[in-house]
């Protein structure tokens, strides 16, 4: 029988009424003849409650193994409840906790990676008549037999990993939005839902702040060619609802640009007139990484008289930490510099699309559109399928709307 | 090193402040040189929340395996949190869920019995420097690898089972009362805390409604000679605080009667003038058991003219169910009877004491005391160390006080 993986996030299982709706939705797929693996998150709010407690209990130097043992319990609750709901609908179902499958992971607690998912156990149960395996997402078990978790959003990754392991026809990610949009509808009223998007594009969008899917789950889906579908758990669904995240080849025609993404609260730091000698980059960015600063864009100006300006972007709430790390590093390494300045009022806006590979002039078109609106570009970085710029935060919405227009994203 | 088992119930771990107090208390025992196994319940309220959800999810014919998977999660949370608190106090501790030990149980979900607790794992960890193993109470794992629970109050049983398996010097049950009393202090102001009580007495008191310890945990402690101590988690403790539940031989001197117990909301049913022929008792009490009625006392009058009256007591909220079961059974078996009457306004009062074995006249003394207060006795049953009577509910407090006085329980 064909197999399907369905994943339901926290808001989709927030209470028993919603879990019953999930049960109905799963029943529809069972009726179509699928053997279904359902991956569930904790009821919304529950994980935060648990995280709050472990924060209080453990202090700064908490034991990540205990953290995982506590925080994973929310998913176990949902899995059991959904199995009961399915059973009361007459569907042969049972719940599985990570260690029962077992979902074998590394020992990197709180950010473990799935190493293996043995299939014999489920295969035997499906052969014996089980219709639905309900799996507690986000968790696994380490080689030492301790409970691990996969990090925030890890249930997406669990779902994709099961889809890969069991050769599922598709992995449906049910969430509180009805698909992936060309941009955030709250910023542009012209935002359009995409029917299909390539893995590579989704990866860029996910890492750029479109919070629909966890980045790692998309990477995994791309590697194992798992067809991912993002759709709403709050609407009646047809067979081609939502957005299909798939291989480039499966997308017949596409716009050059698939979407416009943004990160509102960024900051820009510039180290002015620093000695330009070998090792200076390492001397700056090594300590920043150690201080836990998530440096994103990095630009270095052409050196003049053996000195250069070094600019990088980072989340705005990490500026103080970054400033201290850089000044300490410069003093320790005896590297001379003129000034360190921070601009806390910038946003990042990006256009993403696999079409860029074959279409020249996308960057020029982007810069012209921003210029036409009088928006000054502060930093630019590009990849094969993405162009990102830093601009003043007050222009962010305007920039998104202008780019959405110029690349005609409202048209399918 | 000597070993100690400490068990903390739901109110003792109701929030993080209380869990920190528990951490301090455990630290005191570690400082004395004990290797400690701590058994914890779910934070108070949590198990009820989970039970409510599974009730909603599963309906009447719920799957007890899923019930157990859900309901056991509360203990896992407490175990992890306490381990973190202990670690932040500099104590080498870790948490263990039932399946990790593993606490091997029968497959009787929701009322499983512990079959075995392998000790190698803990022994190795203790030898390697671990000071405290925090165990999630109330749960285990079945031969099929499913999570089981031991029934309400099961954490007491977990604690005693660990104490037996590891040859612990003592099993301290921390609760919200400071020990076992001669009777409920809310009913008699003269109630006195007992320093020691025999297992047999505790068993009778536990099953008679003194809710300090789960009956099964006392049975287990008696069988494996585990010294049980009941004490308060809300008071500073000395070495001989609380009440020690121990072997008869360990109690030097004791009163003839150890305590007066009661069950307030009982009912009495009488089947009047039923045909007295072989099998009639089975015809009545079989169907009652099947209907889930907890019949307690049973009295049959002397038969006259081949007919007899049959009286039994039961919890007051099971009267309707019992009435239907009895009438159906009588009709099905074609057993003739005159009437079936129920008295819903009775209470059970009992005196318990191992001293009764060697002291005659306790029953006479009890009946005289009740008679002196004008209290009519409706049903009497006796065991080797217990005498129970059913009386009108309105006299319950009076009866308890009178019996407490006549057996001089206020004196040590």
UniProtKB/TrEMBL annotation, chains A, B:
Gene Ontology terms for molecular function: aspartate kinase activity; ATP binding
NCBIfam families linked to this entry: asp_kin_monofn (TIGR00656), asp_kinases (TIGR00657), PRK06635.1-2 (NF005154), PRK06635.1-4 (NF005155)
Alphabetical list of PANTHER family matching this protein: ASPARTATE KINASE, ASPARTOKINASE
Keyword check for Kinase: yes
Binding site for substrate: 47, 75
Identification of the protein by name: Aspartokinase
Similarity annotation: Belongs to the aspartokinase family.
Keyword annotations: Amino-acid biosynthesis, ATP-binding, Kinase, Lysine biosynthesis, Nucleotide-binding, Transferase
């Amino acid at each position: 029988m064909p197999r399907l993986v369905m994943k339901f996030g926290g808001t989709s299982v927030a209470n028993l009424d919603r879990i019953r709706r999930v049960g109905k939705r799963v029943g529809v797929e069972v009726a179509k003849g699928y053997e279904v693996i359902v991956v569930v998150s904790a009821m919304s709010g529950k994980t935060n409650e648990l995280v709050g407690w472990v924060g209080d209990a453990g202090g700064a130097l908490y034991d990540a193994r205990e953290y995982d043992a506590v925080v994973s319990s929310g998913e176990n609750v949902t899995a059991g409840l959904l199995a009961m709901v399915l059973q009361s609908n007459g569907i042969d179902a049972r719940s599985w906790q990570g260690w029962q499958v077992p979902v074998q992971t590394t020992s990197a607690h709180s950010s473990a990676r799935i190493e293996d998912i043995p299939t014999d156990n489920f295969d035997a149960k499906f052969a014996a008549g089980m219709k639905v395996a309900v799996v507690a997402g986000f968790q696994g078990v380490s080689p030492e037999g301790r409970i691990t978790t996969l990090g925030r959003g890890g249930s997406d990754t669990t779902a994709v990993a099961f889809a890969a392991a069991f050769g599922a026809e598709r992995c449906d990610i049910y969430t509180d939005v009805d698909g992936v949009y060309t941009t955030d509808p709250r910023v542009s009223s012209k935002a359009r839902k995409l029917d299909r998007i390539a893995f590579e594009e989704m990866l860029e969008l996910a890492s750029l702040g479109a919070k629909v899917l966890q980045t790692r789950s998309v990477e995994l889906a791309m590697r194992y060619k798992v067809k991912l579908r993002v759709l709403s758990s709050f609407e009646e669904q047809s067979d081609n609802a939502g957005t299909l995240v798939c291989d480039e080849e499966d997308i017949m025609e596409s716009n050059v640009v698939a979407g416009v993404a943004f990160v509102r609260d960024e900051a820009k730091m510039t180290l002015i007139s620093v000695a330009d000698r070998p090792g200076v980059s390492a001397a700056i960015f090594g300590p920043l990484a150690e201080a836990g600063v998530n440096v994103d864009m990095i630009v270095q100006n052409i050196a003049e008289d053996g000195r250069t300006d070094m600019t990088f972007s980072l989340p705005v709430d990490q500026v103080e930490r970054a400033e201290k790390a850089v000044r300490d590093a410069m003093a320790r390494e005896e590297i001379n510099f003129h000034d360190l300045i921070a601009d806390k009022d910038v946003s990042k806006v990006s256009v993403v699309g696999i079409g860029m590979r074959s279409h020249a002039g996308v960057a020029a078109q982007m810069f012209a559109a921003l210029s036409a609106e009088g928006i000054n570009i502060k930093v630019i970085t590009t990849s094969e399928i993405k162009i990102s710029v830093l601009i003043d935060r007050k222009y962010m919405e305007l920039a998104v709307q202008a780019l959405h227009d110029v690349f005609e994203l409202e048209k399918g």
